[in-house]
């Protein structure tokens, strides 16, 4: 045979490349070993290739968890598809792990698909510590017994050929392997490394490129599986960013000048990025002494100038309540961004939750009407801030923008926004105030009044957080107090009249309507789509405005046999022993919708500190359809 | 002659203000309240410096002191308890062109707003901050404040307060970036006015503690000092407070003190009896936060757009063939 004449060492034939519609890859390591950078790079390369992508950060709760610990898994999940991807999906198809302990963390969390491929660093088999050798060997055995396909890989050994400390660099070797396994363009990967390490020395880019190529070559020569996910190269430019970067760019694009904040997880990276870029275009990030001061600073800046923004997460949001109430009372425009995390109290700082909806709507003592919006995608994070600024200044109201930890660190490509001057705030009005005009000249229909800004001749008045009349004089008359409350409330109704009813995902009538808000949109709609393919009569509705709510919701609900919400906040399980129809605590949106529509809306929720999986929603909806 | 005429003509177009131009609502403070003296001194200061009422903002928190903005005819911001300083900082950052004054009390500043006080000193933004220190909570009807003397019987300390009083001067002088600290008493209006004027003319965070009488809840608190001029220590200096002949005759207990000397200032600050009155410390070299942060930059739409597009470029995935064209 002619084959015998070919002098190639491996007798193994090149593996056949399997086409996949989509796949989920996880890369996990100890903190500081670079798995997150590997995952983010993989996501960016796939996005550049034209694939749909969604990335989810896997974050340990501690800053320096001990090495090789089950709870210390740090890394990234990357879901790559032939079409647009809107969420992190179900279980992983392939995992790269730098040690068996972080891998076990993912196994025990139920994040791996049965039988999935595991690419595991094998240096632990020869560790000097016999306990480690035993743990490693035993884990490999058990996982194989459980049906996983464990491939032990000498990553450390291979990297050592190029660098003295493979702990820094192994991640690029892993990236090379993954690019080879998923048939991604090596040139795109090289380009990505140049971007990632662009700020560093050229030699850093050089060595990381070599590690990437080594990983690629090793996988090419040694692995007998190869996949490709068909990609359609984009026809329009797209941005690949995470939700917090999108929020920061939204602040920049809204024309706001001042952002006041105090460091808090998971909101802080908004300010990190903004501190870097905002000031280059004349904006300012003020890191205040505390959350209360950050809010008060934003209130002061908004009062004397353009609308300002303060960015925070749960505990910080609680601390800002009195300042928010002041802005509501005095009708000072302000944008408050709350990147929600698990609560109450310190809760789960790095994990996402939708637990702050009712606080956002009803927070601050007394009746403090404010606008509440929720971003449901990375793209939405960007545009929400622009819309929020406009509403805040048009209605002289506080606008709360809710995001969460899942959006904060998730990455997804979306069309590059086309700049519009209408995004920007107008200059501060310094014209003289008309004779006889009053600082709170409330319109009797809409509640709106012109805002007097310091510097405007003739507009001098003392703004107060006390109940006040149209002249901003402290109100001692009981009727004046009611007049103020009435007009501040009317502004919400005036805004509500301008809102379009949300669009249904699916048919406009059916057996079940599932309603959501915020970051769960992708998972809910994917679940609904799967069920609809099976013939189920399910539709989804996603709310962008939680306060005020668009009109027509009740009419939509009445066209469905059953209505329920799916949320990532607490609700009592109706099957619990002492839970009944009278004492059951519903999820936040369900509470609001039930009171507004008097429809018996059910809810299902999960508060596990991770994105809700579409597969789980499918099961929930299926049960609801049957039950 | 020509010059004089021109100047006269120009002055015709200048705005001049009378005391009435700064008088707002009728004060609702008690008769004999020291806040009235502070208000009068403030109105005089505005008139004598011809401050445009529309370019002037009085910011306050909550308490008797914090009613002051209502009695001015400028812009006023009567906010929430303890937060006058961060509100004022936001105003100054957004609008460095405005004259910003803060009126705060011993509860507002030294208790609930203490964190903001410390950091306000450190930011050193250009504003005049007046601490109306009457040693007691008045608006809520007699509770001990952080500056109440130990043993004060009040509604929350019926057997006498347990702790020694906090000294706002030593605290302020202990904070990095402190740039102006003075003390005045409400019952010597001429000196109060001089000190507030010096504070206003200082570029930075000018902190003036005013010993203020509360006739309702602590009517006798300052009697010994009112009755005996020797119990007031006047700090004088060519760079500090200059006394009129009349004042010098009445208040003979004087000490020359150079406001640049922070060590001396700290030692004077800790004197409780006699009450030191004058400028304890002034350092014009401390930079203002709003200057360091380049506030007030003109941001045109083109300017913002250029910055935004440059950021978009960093994260853009271009369709095949377009990338180089745009770069």
Task: Please render the helix and strand layout as text.
The complex is a heterodimer of chains A (627) and B (327).
Chain A (H helix, E strand, L loop, with lengths): L16 E3 L2 E8 L5 H15 L2 E7 L15 E8 L10 E6 L2 H9 L3 E10 L8 H16 L3 E5 L1 H6 L9 H12 L4 H11 L5 H21 L3 E3 L9 E5 H12 L3 E4 L6 H10 L6 E4 L3 H14 L3 E5 L1 H6 L1 H10 L3 E7 L16 H6 L8 E4 L3 H18 L2 E7 H5 L1 E5 L46 E3 L13 H19 L7 E2 L4 E8 L3 H13 L4 E6 L1 E3 L5 H5 L2 E8 L20 H10 L4 E4 L8 H13 L1
Parallel strand pairs in A: 1-8, 2-5, 5-6, 6-7, 10-11, 10-12, 12-13, 13-15, 14-15, 19-20, 19-22, 22-23
Antiparallel strand pairs in A: 2-4, 3-4, 9-16, 14-21, 18-20
Helix pairs in contact in A: 1-5, 1-6, 5-7, 6-7, 8-9, 8-14, 10-12, 17-20
Chain B lengths: L1 H12 L21 H14 L7 E5 L14 E4 L5 H11 L4 E7 H7 L1 H10 L3 E7 L2 E2 L5 E2 L23 H6 L6 E6 L3 H13 L3 E7 L11 H5 L4 E5 L8 H6 L3 E3 L5 H8 L5 E8 L6 H4 L8 H15 E2 L5 H4 L1
Parallel strand pairs in B: 1-2, 1-3, 3-4, 4-8, 7-8, 9-10, 9-11
Antiparallel strand pairs in B: 5-6, 7-11
Can you characterise this structure?
The complex is a heterodimer of chains A (627) and B (327). Chain A is globular, with a radius of gyration of 27 Å. In chain A, helix 5 (170-181) crosses helix 7 (202-222). Chain A has 627 residues and is an alpha/beta fold. Chain A contains 20 helices and 23 strands. Chain A has three domains: 17-228, Pyruvate-ferredoxin oxidoreductase, PFOR, domain III (Pyruvate-ferredoxin Oxidoreductase, domain 3), CATH 3.40.920; 240-423, Thiamin diphosphate (ThDP)-binding fold, Pyr/PP domains (Rossmann fold); 504-626, Rossmann fold, CATH 3.40.50. A seven-stranded mixed β-sheet of chain A has the order 11-10-12-13-15-14-21, sandwiched between helices. In chain B, the strands form two sheets. In chain B, strands 2-1-3-4-8-7-11-9-10 form a nine-stranded mixed β-sheet, sandwiched between helices. Chain B has one domain: 3-Layer(aba) Sandwich (Rossmann fold). Chain B has 13 helices and twelve strands. Chain B is globular, with a radius of gyration of 23 Å. Chain B has helices spanning 2-13, 35-48, 84-94, 106-112, 114-123, 168-173, 189-201, 223-227, 245-250, 262-269, 289-292, 301-315, 323-326, and strands at residues 56-60, 75-78, 99-105, 127-133, 136-137, 143-144, 180-185, 205-211, 232-236, 254-256, 275-282, 316-317. By secondary structure, chain B is an alpha/beta fold. Chains A and B meet through helix 1, strand 9, helix 8, helix 10 and helix 12 of A and strand 1, strand 2, helix 3, helix 5 and helix 12 of B. Strand 17 (462-464) of chain A pairs parallel with strand 2 (75-78) of chain B.
